Amino acid sequence: AQSVTQPDIHITVSEGASLELRCNYSYGATPYLFWYVQSPGQGLQLLLKYFSGDTLVQGIKGFEAEFKRSQSSFNLRKPSVHWSDAAEYFCAASAGGGADGLTFGKGTHLIIQP
Amino acid sequence: KAGVTQTPRYLIKTRGQQVTLSCSPISGHRSVSWYQQTPGQGLQFLFEYFSETQRNKGNFPGRFSGRQFSNSRSEMNVSTLELGDSALYLCASSPLFGLAGSQETQYFGPGTRLLVL
Q1: Over the Cα atoms of chain A, what is R_g?
Q2: Can you tell me the mean pLDDT for A34-44?
Q3: Which of A90, A73, A110 is closest to A36 using CA atoms?
Q4: A96-105 tens-digit pLDDT
Q5: d(CA A105, nearest CA chain B) in Å
Q6: What are the chain A neighbours of B104 within 8 Å (beta carbons)?
Q7: How far apart are CA A23 and CA A96, in angstroms?
Q8: Which strand (E) or helix (H) includes residue A77?
Q9: pLDDT tens digits, residue range B7-63?
Q10: Quick check: A95 contacting B, CB < 8 Å?
Q11: Taking a C-beta distance cutoff of 8 angstroms, is the pair B90, B108 a contact?
Q12: Of B2, B6, B65, which Cα lies nearest the Cα of B29?
């Protein structure tokens, strides 16, 4: 079955420190990959996406993600976090083809320490 | 461009009632998907509509249904509400003019929070 795994339920990072959120997927073929962020009581905001090509993708708010086929991973990174980055982060995948829904990981709750 | 809008934002119902939620996609987007978010199960795909046709459905009982209108607006309905239906219901739209790749990016609305008592 298709699945997306985010191994870390909670991550605490000091403001100004670097961040890496992990995401692994299990799909028959390389899926389309996405990272979304959700602030409390809000919907999901798209941070970045990967369809093909360059394995390092840039997103909004200074985030980037690297696709590694050999590790079935799509980790999200940011060189220096801000207090406003505190939120829930979701990795998602889609097999593509038009009608397929997104499969989400369980999410990683990011806490920023002052 | 205006984003995805969902109405109502909050709803309280009692067990056994039915509820209808509405979603207006981004202008020009023809695909609308619905998701349920709960603390226990996380985000789960309900169904997807394109050109008024349901093309895919997640693993939910028949009490959950939806439809899409000719202007791409969509509604989902839940009949005979159960306590476990309390959740945030998210709608997402994507361009999806039959092309793969970037046209499949889904953009989410703020959600409708449903509480079943």
Answers
A1: 14
A2: 92
A3: A90
A4: 765 668 999 9
A5: 8
A6: 32, 94, 96, 98
A7: 19
A8: strand A73-78
A9: 999 999 999 999 999 999 999 998 899 999 999 999 999 999 988 999 889 999 999
A10: no
A11: yes
A12: B2
